[in-house]
Amino acid sequence: MRLRHAPLLLIAVTLSMAPLSIFAVAADAKTSHSATANLPYQTSRWNAGTPNSSTVVKDPSTGAITSYGDGAITYQVPSSTLIALGQSLYLQNCASCHGTQADGVPAGGTSGAYPNLRGLGAATIDFWVESGRMPAANPRAVQAMRGQPRLTAAQAVAISAWVNSLDPSYPAIPSVHLQGANVSNGAALFALNCAACHTIEGAGDALAFSTYAPSLHHVPANQIVEAIRTGPGNMPRFTGNLSDYQVRDIVAYVTSEIQHPRNVGGLGLGGLGPVAEGFVGLLIGVGLLAMIGYWVGERDE
Fold first, then answer.
1. What is the per-residue pLDDT across 159-179, written as a single tens digit (0 to 9) for each?
2. Predicted TM-score of the model (pTM)
3. Do the Cβ atoms of 243 and 47 come closer than 8 Å?
4. How buried is 121 (Cβ within 10 angstroms: 0-12 exposed, 13-18 middle, 19+ buried)?
5. Contact 123, 171 (CB under 8 A)
């Protein structure tokens, strides 16, 4: 009996999957765009963090890309006028570890001792500096912790301009346009792509080998985009699988519902989750009932 029905089952599964594959090919054909360069962060998907975007602006005199993006996110390539300042700031704050040429080889050091920064794109450099993770307080730490930035946002952009000039790449530095974002869609995308590490409440959690997924409760919108597009530390890099519009929805959800929860049902209890909240409710509820019962018993005596 099992052998007699196996071909029928195979045919049914094949037919049920065929329309999905056809739609997938059609969707890919609709959204694909030829890659502009063979770069580590390049993707063939349209509107996904690289110049495969709805809008690309070039310098009329040099033809170099100055910005690109769409209605969700605009990516700005740091101005070449910042390169000299960026080099000076880099040599003062970064060269002792990453080397004078940003190749990860400090003076008198060996290749591979520290991360090579060349070819990573301006957004990567901007994220690490602007989030306070770099310059590192402890270069030998397993994971750089977010902290008070030692350099200003403008200085971070200047350093990004110089490092990116050595080996130009993408993504550029993003600015997200939250107007028109779909928060409910962002919640679904966050649950699917982010919650496994950052938790559904965005509080962060421990990972393997003394690393952790950081809390998202005090992260600015542009740094959320940079993290999604560049994949700092253990985080995956989301390029071809999330469009700019999907990233905008995630950012809208994080900066609203996670960073400013409404807790319409009562006290949020720090967003610890239903198990902890149930335990607190049970503890207080049962404890209060026990005290009332004890008080009534004492009065009856």
1. 999 999 999 999 999 999 999
2. 0.77
3. yes
4. buried
5. yes
